[in-house]
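Weekly modeling sync, notes
Attendees: S.R. (lead), two postdocs, one rotation student

Agenda item 3: backlog of single-chain predictions. S.R. asked that every request posted to the team notebook include the full sequence so nobody has to chase files. The rotation student volunteered to paste the first one in as an example of the format we agreed on. Action items at the bottom.

Example entry:
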Amino acid sequence: MARSTPHVSALTDGEPRYLRIASRLLGELRDGTVPPGERLPGERQLAEHFGVSRETVRQALEVLRREGLVATDRRGSHATLPGLPVETPASLTFPVGARSADRGAIARATLVWEPPPAGHAEPLGLAPDRPTLVHRYWSASADGREVRMAVSSFSAVALSEVEELARYRDRADGRSAAELRRAYDWMRRAGLTLHHRDTITRIADAPSVRVMRRVHDQYDRPLELTELIVDAQQDALVYEFTLPAAV
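Predicted structure, as returned to the notebook:
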């Protein structure tokens, strides 16, 4: 259960503005808008978000720090409310649509350092011919009734701020197996709050669907784009994912 303090939760019309902002920010921490352990936006972004001065934001954060609800280190402030740690497997598995292989299923994944596929560069803020980390995933069920193909491209922001991803640049030869199932956890551990936008469409004249996932951070900077195609010879397609529980 999240801790509370009467200094934050019981406000009246005569309370200082910074206490009102502390209360609103606490509400976002408790409803899961900012999950436990996530980095908070910077003072400037918070000031714009709440429509107040940076000094008011500083005072509000100080109230939450005194109550142990927010902690600050060299990379900024982060939420400390109890909840699932960012490194638990409860967050989304990369790439979108990947899952534990069925018995007898075949799956493979590779990484290359090359210009992204058509349609990926612009949303990621990359020049069309600029190379980046590109991940390709393929899997097939044992009976051949379901095939999944995914290609993912990462932005310069993701590679510069997520150490685990950056390490793959020199190993992205397209031949070695690549296991990035924890990629979203790595991003969150780097202090990035992930926002996913999934677009699912049917492919005409084929038993397939296309899922386009765009991921950006709390500053609206693009991080990753994945295009997944599921070809399933069955009546129903199940698209399943898990998010950390809100506090």
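Discussion: group reviewed the output briefly. The helical segments are 6-9, 17-30, 43-50, 54-66, 121-124, 156-161, 163-166, 183-189.
Action items: rotation student to repeat for the remaining queue; S.R. to check formatting next week.
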